[in-house]
Amino acid sequence: MADITRRVGWRHLRSAPTAHIRHQRRGRLVHDGEGLSFWFRPLTAALSEVPVNDRELAMAFHARTADFQDVSVQSTVTYRIGDPAAAATRLDFSIDPDTGAWRGTPLEQIATLLTETAQQHALDVLARTALAEALVDGVTAVRDRVTAGLAAEPRLPATGIEVVAVRVVAIRPEPEVERALRTPAREQIQQEADRATYERRAIAVERERAIAENELASKIELARQEERLVEQRGTNARREAEENAAADAVRAEAEAVRKVRLAQAEAEAAREVGAARAVAQSAWLRAHAEVDPATLHALAVTRAAENLPHIEHLTLSPDVLTGLLAKLGEGGARP
């Protein structure tokens, strides 16, 4: 929308670079071009503003296929006004000299023209196409047919409209039909998923079996190793017992030999001691045989006295002392 500034009796218009302005005064063209800025009198000016930039027109409409199935078509048409002068003469692009707003609805007229034209060609294509084919190849077919139909439409060049591009976003059937069409594919996908699940489970079972077999083989091998270990331990124990028995036999034999030798030595020593004692006894007997009996008596008394307890004090009564003295006197009187 043009920017209009109000002054007393005058107006100033300033347009955007994407807007084509046509200023006529008393039927004569005064200003014509894009991005203009000028003063004018509102009472004598006839202004038109035609946008020259690219515009997007979204369209959605229903169609029926060859097998009588309803589908919805979503598309977008990009257009521009290539001939602003022709568009201004065919459509009402006039603007209010006070506000700069369009007096009519030219863009809605263009949208209606493009929509009806595109819909006519799309319906013609889909009416000859089955639903399955329309869902697979319908987007390309409808786009090509709509592009060709808009290019061949004579009203568009006469109105100054140029179609830049046509895009068909989607062709969709009714929700119930779409769900029905999705069912086989979903079933197939589910079957593939189930098959993959079964295969995964089978692989898991096979792996578990392999693991169990490996564990069993490990246990068997471990049992064999334990059996070998027990046998080896028994062999070692037997060898150790045999070695100990041999060692004990050697020690017993050595001990017996030692004891025999010791007994022989002790017997020899006893014989020697006995012989020595016999010799000494014989010599003692011979010595006593040659001594006087009185001397032997004295020796016997001496030996007996040696074995008597020790007497520190001896008390003699006068009678005993007198008797002893008398005996001593008698003994001393003997020659």
TrEMBL record:
It holds the Pfam family Band_7. InterPro entries: Band_7 (IPR001107), Band_7/SPFH_dom_sf (IPR036013). Residues 32-197 form the Band domain. This is SPFH domain-containing protein. The lineage of its organism: Bacteria, Bacillati, Actinomycetota, Actinomycetes, Kitasatosporales.
